[in-house]
Amino acid sequence: DGGITQSPKYLFRKEGQNVTLSCEQNLNHDAMYWYRQDPGQGLRLIYYSQIVNDFQKGDIAEGYSVSREKKESFPLTVTSAQKNPTAFYLCASSRTLADNTIYFGEGSWLTVV
Amino acid sequence: GQQVMQIPQYQHVQEGEDFTTYCNSSTTLSNIQWYKQRPGGHPVFLIQLVKSGEVKKQKRLTFQFGEAKKNSSLHITATQTTDVGTYFCAWTGSNTGKLIFGQGTTLQVKP
User: Fold this and answer.
1) Beta strand residue intervals within chain A, DSSP E
2) Measured between CB atoms, which of A40, A42, A100 is closest to B102?
3) Is the pLDDT score of B96 beyond 70?
4) Of B50, B61, B58, residue with least CA distance to B91
5) Which residues are CB-contacts of A52 (< 8 A; sequence separation ≥ 6)?
6) Would you tell me which of A62, A74, A98, B63 could form a disulfide with A32, CB atoms 3.0–4.6 Å apart?
7) What stretches of B2-53 adopt beta strand conformation (E)?
8) What gap in Å lies between CA B66 and CA B71, rounded to an integer?
9) Beta A108-112 vs A10-13: how paired, if at all?
10) Whole-angstrom distance, CA of residue A21 vs CA of residue A88
11) Cβ A20 vs Cβ A13: under 8 Å
């Protein structure tokens, strides 16, 4: 069953803690992305990766970090430096960066308590 | 710089009525994509338009790309409750080459 798997779907975090969101894809896609969506808002790009061992900052990278050690995996860490982390996080992938038809995972809801 | 506006932000219609959402750009777009996000769900790719004046149909959905490639629309004929959700246009940024999403139009359908 091909697709993008995000976990966990719901996560609660205490202020001051780092948390890592998992994203795995078995589509053999080179490019992967992390977006943030706030209620009633559009999608904002946090980080993207064109290929293994490469990643670039998006529009709102501050307070986040990523790694791309394997083609299939692109985890996102929300650090304590992120001032307002409560949001819906969407991982996505595309065949290549140029072929930017994007396929999304089901998302992870992060709530800071 | 490139500015793209998606309108309206919200639309409430009676079931059976038509619905249209628009994306309007200040500059020429190389392509435009449309996505649908159901409430509580994730965005799902619907279609990509590339050619000037292109029109594509998917059942009750009609997608258009303007002749000047500055405007695009998504039209739904005879809405159904299954059409409820937020519709996003997205385009490739002229400076970055990355996909940028519009603010979305949220459609509510009254049965």
Assistant:
1) 4-7, 10-13, 19-25, 31-37, 43-49, 56-57, 64-66, 76-78, 87-94, 103-104, 108-112
2) A42
3) no
4) B50
5) A68, A69, A70, A71
6) A74
7) 4-7, 10-14, 19-25, 32-37, 43-49
8) 5
9) parallel
10) 11
11) no
**Average confidence (pLDDT) over B67-81:** 97
CB contact under 8 A, B42 and A107: yes
Rounded CA separation A73/B109 (Å): 38
A73 CB-contact burial (10 Å; exposed 0-12 / middle 13-18 / buried 19+): middle
Name which of A40, A98, A104 is nearest B43 (Cβ-Cβ): A104
Tell me how far apart the alpha carbons of residues B102 and B89 are, in angstroms, rounded to a whole number. Answer: 5
Look at residue A48 in the predicted model and tell me its pLDDT: 94
Q: What is the pLDDT of residue A40?
A: 74
Smallest CA-to-CA distance from B17 within B88, B85, B76 is with B76
